[in-house]
Amino acid sequence: MNIETRVKQTLSKMKLNKKERILIAMSGGKDSSVVAYLLKKQGYRIEGFHIDLGMGTYSKRCLEAVKELCKQLDIKLNLYNIKIEMGSSMCYIRTTIQTQEHGKGLKNCAICGVIKKWIMNKEARNLKVDKIATGHNLDDEAQTFLMNLFKGSLQLSANSGAITKNVKDKKFITRIKPLFYIPEDEIRKYSKTKKLPVVYEKCPCALDSYRIQVREFMNTLTTKEKENIMKNFEDISEKIQKLKPENKLNYCELCGEPSRNKICKMCQLVKKG
Ligand code: AMP
Ligand code: ZN
Is the CB of 202 under 6 A from ligand 1? Predict the structure, then answer.
């Protein structure tokens, strides 16, 4: 079955309404660009959202790629400039955290991921959209699942899925992953066939050695084996959810954003002295 049909199936299982407004979190990379392209092609009401992380020429190229694709698809692009909104680039924010006691040993991608999710939810809510779509693919998901498994922290995978589970809250915008079942190779090929304006190189700060090691191992697996990892995950998903002690959503005491703890992950990172 081709990628278009499989994405259509994934989306139809989510029972989305074609009138819903979906904000595509566009990094400028192949995955989120393919999400924008396919959702537009399949008749969804989409808009783009890009966070300019202020990381030199890499960020400039990503921004140009996103602008070009939005122009080609004739969709609105919402921009968030981290230097303007938060006062410094992602590199500076991240290094500041890592040089403090509470941030020692935290990986670049982990910090950047928390900050991006916080921004996405807040901005999506301000824009009053119904869903956020990201470019996470089968390889990303299998990788994260295996990493949690290897670390003995399977409960961290509890809410993973093509659509966010267990969160119904007016301040939390549901996130969807239309490429959840699609292997990375296929996405790359599709993006090249369609000649999408995309930055193919990896983020220069993606230096998490453990993730790289797991990715290298994953590269030795067949697509069927990767699919089996996620099939097994879905089979035991309900049991994993029971490993999570508390599933209730609160609001962060510092920033007011939805959080499972008194202080959200973002504020734990950036506000601690
Ligand atoms: P990453 O955290 O880089 O693995 O990216 C995961 C997903 O987050 C991507 O597939 C995009 O949908 C979204 N994303 C990553 N970086 C950005 C960005 N700079 N602006 C908007 N969305 C992004
Ligand atoms: Zn907070």
Answer: no
Distance CA 162, CA 14 (A): 8
Q: What is the pLDDT of residue 247?
A: 60
Q: Write the pLDDT tens digit of every residue in 161-206.
A: 999 876 778 999 999 999 999 999 999 999 999 999 999 999 999 8
Cα of 266 from ligand 2 centre, angstroms? 6
Q: Which of 22, 24, 30, 32 to mutate to test the pocket of ligand 1 (most atoms within 8 A of CB)?
A: 32
User: What's residue 246's pLDDT?
Assistant: 64
Alpha-carbon dihedral sign for residues 98, 26, 65, 202:
positive
Q: Which residue has the tokens 């809510």?
A: 125
Instruction: Dump pLDDT digits (tens) for 53-69.
Output: 999 999 999 999 999 99
* Kind of pairing between the strands at 250-251 and 258-259: antiparallel
Instruction: Report the largest interatomic distance among the alpha carbons of the chain, rounded to a whole angstrom.
Output: 52
Q: What is the pLDDT of residues 200-214, one digit of tens each?
A: 999 999 888 788 899
Tell how far the Cα of 267 is from the centroid of ligand 1, in angstroms: 20
Which superfamily, per CATH, for 3-248? HUPs (3.40.50.620)
